[in-house]
């Protein structure tokens, strides 16, 4: 019985890799060394993810422009973007998985498409293509209400 389970597991694993292949090679979701946003190459391995996440957050916050239509209509929420970090670190196949409308989807896609090249992911020491899913939050600042007694 164990023999059948191991053959079944092997079949599932082998077909999933084959299904994920295209003319650019296999596409990974989980790798030994994940791709990361540039600027943290000199960091120790333990601190690299934190540094890269911070740099990515700074890039997004400095480059996203809240769409006027979304601002006027009070549209807030999360846009889920999916993209591929290629073997050379370039960003391709950017698509909106879940949007909120009001121009936020297009703005999130624009900023991701214009990101600098990442440090590519590695599998067994070889650069590979890795799929990423990234939520981008669009939030409006709440207006402070004046207290009626402070207007005198």
TL;DR of this structure?
By secondary structure, this protein is of the alpha+beta class. The chain has helices spanning 2-19, 45-63, 68-72, 104-113, and strands spanning 27-28, 77-85, 91-98, 121-123, 126-138.
Structural features, described:
This protein has 152 residues and is α+β, with helices and mostly antiparallel strands. The chain has one domain (25-140): Fusion Protein Consisting Of Minor Coat Protein, Glycine Rich Linker, Tola, And A His Tag, Chain: A, Domain 2 (2-Layer Sandwich). The chain is 34% helix and 23% strand. It has helices spanning 2-19, 45-63, 68-72, 104-113; strands at residues 27-28, 77-85, 91-98, 121-123, 126-138. Strands 1, 2, 3, 4 and 5 form a 5-stranded mixed sheet that branches. The chain is globular and about 55 Å long.
């Amino acid at each position: 019985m164990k023999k059948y389970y191991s053959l079944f597991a092997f079949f599932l694993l082998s077909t999933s890799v084959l299904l994920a292949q295209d003319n650019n090679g296999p596409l990974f979701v989980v790798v030994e060394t994940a791709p990361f946003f540039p600027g943290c190459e000199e960091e120790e391995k333990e601190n690299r993810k934190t540094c890269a996440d911070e740099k990515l957050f700074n890039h997004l916050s400095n480059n996203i422009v809240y769409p006027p239509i979304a601002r006027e209509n009070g549209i807030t929420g999360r846009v889920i973007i999916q993209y591929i970090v290629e073997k050379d670190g370039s960003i391709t196949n950017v698509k909106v998985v879940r949007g909120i409308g009001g121009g936020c989807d297009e703005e999130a896609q624009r900023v991701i498409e214009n990101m600098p090249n990442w440090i590519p992911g590695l599998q067994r020491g070889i650069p590979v293509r890795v799929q990423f899913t990234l939520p981008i939050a669009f939030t409006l600042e709440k207006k402070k209400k004046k207290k009626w007694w402070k207007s005198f």
